[in-house]
Amino acid sequence: MLGYYKIITYGCQMNVHESEKIAGLLKAMGYEDCPAEGSADVIVFNTCCIRDTAERRALGNIGVVKAEKKRNPSLILAVVGCMPQQDGAAENIRQRYPYVDIILGTRNISRLPEEINKIISSRESKRRGDKRYRAVDTRLPDEYLSIDENTPTLRTSYPNAWINIIYGCNNFCTYCIVPYVRGREISRSMPNVLDEVRRAVDMGYKEITLLGQNVNSYGNDMPGGEVNFAKLLHEIDKIEGKFRVRFMTSHPKDLTEEVMDEMAASNKICSNLHLPIQSGSDKVLKDMNRRYDRERYLYLVSALRSRMPDIGLTTDIMVGFPTETEEDFLCTLDIVERVRFSNAFTFIYSPRKGTPAAQMEQIPYAVKQERISRLIKAQNRITKELSDGYTGKTYEVLCEDTAPKFEGMVCGRTDSGRLVTFDGGPSDIGKFINVKITASRSASLFGSREDI
Ligand code: SF4
User: Fold this and answer.
1) Which of 42, 106, 266, 351 has the highest CB neighbour number within 10 Å of its CB?
2) What DSSP string describes 23-38?
C-alpha cells in the first residue's frame, strides 16, 4: 500500500460521481481510503462553484489543511474540479495557497496519478537542490475529456450506480457558470453507456442514475442524428434484471414526447422527474435565457401526468434573479400552486463572476429572503398535503440505507422518488420491499414492511 487518501466533495451528484472516479484512480495507484481517525497521505478537494457558499466552504477548508501540511510535509494536496476552472481561479489558488501541490480543472482530473508521481519524484530531486514541482492544468478544449472510458470507478453509493452519459452544457443560462467551467456538451457513445449499465446490473446494483447537466441533449453532438436520449432509455429498458432507472437533470426546453413515452412504457424507468422551472415569470425566464415559457412548462406537466398519473415531480426554483419584480415572484408562487411539486429545491440567486446576470443591477438581499420564505412556506404546505395522500397505501420501496436517526429502521425510495423510513436492518439494503405508509412528516414518509 502506498498510503491513505481522503476526498472532500462539494456540490452536485456529478461531483459525487467524479469523486468515485478519483477514488478509483487513487486505489489503482495503491492508495487506500483513509480510516475516519487516520491521517491521509493524499487529500483531494473536489470543488464546486455553482454557488458562492460552496466555494467559500471549500476555500475555508483548504485553508484549514495548512496546519496538517505543516505537521506532515509529505502530504500531497490537490484541488480539482469546477472551482479552479473559473477564469483566473487556478492562479489565485496557486498564489494564496502555496502549500497546494496539484490544481486540475474539470476535464483534467484523470491526470491526477501522473501528477502525484511527478510530485513524489520531484521531492527526491528537490533534496538535490531542484525547484519544488507544482501541477496546474485547467485546459478545456471542446473535444478533450480526460475522464474517459478507461478511468476506473470506485462506487460508493450501493444500491445506486451513477452513470454519466453526457458532459458539459451548451445552454448558457445567464446566471450559470457551468458552461464556462465544464465546457461544451460531449456525449458518451451509446454502446459504452449500455455496457456500463449492464456491468453495474451484473454486479448487483439495483438503481441506475443517468447523469448529465442536460440529459435530454444526449446524442445532439453526435453526427447522423440517430442517437438520442429516448433511444438510450429504450435500449437500457431492454437490459435484463430487476433494477430501476432515474436520470438527472432534464431541461424543460429539451424534454421530448418520445422520452415521456419511454418513461411511461417502461417498468424500469421510474415515474419520477426532476424538471427545474427556476421561475414562473415569462419575463424572468427570458432574461435567464431558459428558452421555454410557463405555457410550455405547464404543457409538459400535463403531458407527463396524462401518461403517468402518479409521477413524482420535483424542481429547482431560483428566487431574486436581478430582474425579478414582486409581480414576477407572484407568477412563481402561482405556478407552484398549479403544478403542486412533490418537492422543490429553492435557493436565493447569488451572482457568479463572469456570467451575464452578474452584470445586471442586483435586488436587495432582504427582498430575496422575504420572497424565499413565502415560497418555502407554500411548498412545504403542498409537500405535506401530497405526503398525506400516501398514507394507508402500499408501495414498493428500494431499501437504500439504515436510517441515521432511527434505530432499527432503514430508508429507501418509492418509484416516485419519495423517501420512506421503515423497520429493517442492514441486510435489507439493496432489496425491494413492500411498505405500507402509516404516517407522513413533510417530505418524509414512515411505514411498516408487509413482507413479514
Ligand atoms: S442548463 Fe442552464 S442551469 Fe443547467 S447547467 Fe446548463 S447553463 Fe447551467
Assistant:
1) 106
2) HHHHHHHTEEEPPTTS
